[in-house]
Amino acid sequence: MIKNIFKGLSAYSRAFPLISELGLWKYFLIPMAISFFIAVAVFASIYKLADNIGRWLASFYPFETGAETVEAIATFVGGLSILVLGLILYKHIVMALSSPFMSPVSEKMERHLFPEFHEEIKQRKTSNAQQLVRGLRINVRNLIYELLITIPLLLLSLIPLVNFVTTPLIFLVQSYYAGFGNMDYTLERHFNYRESVRFVKKSRGYAIGNGIVFMLMALIPVLGVIIVLPISATAASKTTLELLRERRLFEKTGDNLKAEDQNRVRISG
């Protein structure tokens, strides 16, 4: 798992050169705009809600002594919780709406990096509308699972000292589902919905590695939310294509071994 996480991280070293080399920036203009405006809406809501949630949490404290301190802590905890939930919503909305624009990027990279693999494998042909529906389906599924895991962790983080464990776990969960969404831009052309889910589950480390950088970049004011999707989607496409090619080579080797075994049986018979 750790080794695969580092492999997912290392794919970013080729992201910028690939985008420039293949002239991919034009494909990212609309996704970058989507990412920016969704981020503005989400984080503006966070700013407005943080104080209200802080006061609501502080209202459960029955004493006057230390009330200001409790309210300050409650405001921080409320803001942090809204930030985490806001990042989750931002991530899945942007990834779902960007789906139709990402498939051409992945296909162009596939033709460039592995032309023989691209010609050999039969691709799934889908329309922009089908890609959008697929993106919505994947991201709604991931959103539900992520919330089911994250909300209990947020509640546990209210317990002193426990938050030293829950905070990294929340970050890794967010990273996994960010990487999941980025990898599906390539998987969409090769697998159906269920096959893609199984593929990413078997490649968790790669998804986490890709998502770690996604989450860190998304926290950079303004610039981060603009460039996060092009960079992370390109890195994920490279990683996923390499995994698909390795899987195909493994399957071909297995087929060849089966053929050799059959030939031995015929010869010995």
TrEMBL record:
Q: How does it sit in the membrane?
A: Multi-pass membrane protein
Membrane-spanning parts: 27-50, 70-90, 143-162, 208-231
Give the source's domain of life in one word: Bacteria
Give GO MF terms, alphabetically: high-affinity sulfate:proton symporter activity
Entries under InterPro entries matching the protein: CysZ-like (IPR050480), CysZ/EI24 (IPR059112)
Q: Which Pfam families match?
A: EI24
Query: Which keywords fit this entry according to its UniProt record?
Result: Amino-acid biosynthesis, Cell inner membrane, Cell membrane, Membrane, Sulfate transport, Transmembrane, Transmembrane helix, Transport
What name has this protein been given in UniProt?
Coproporphyrinogen III oxidase
- The source organism is Nonlabens spongiae
Task: Give the source lineage, highest ranks first.
Answer: Bacteria, Pseudomonadati, Bacteroidota, Flavobacteriia, Flavobacteriales
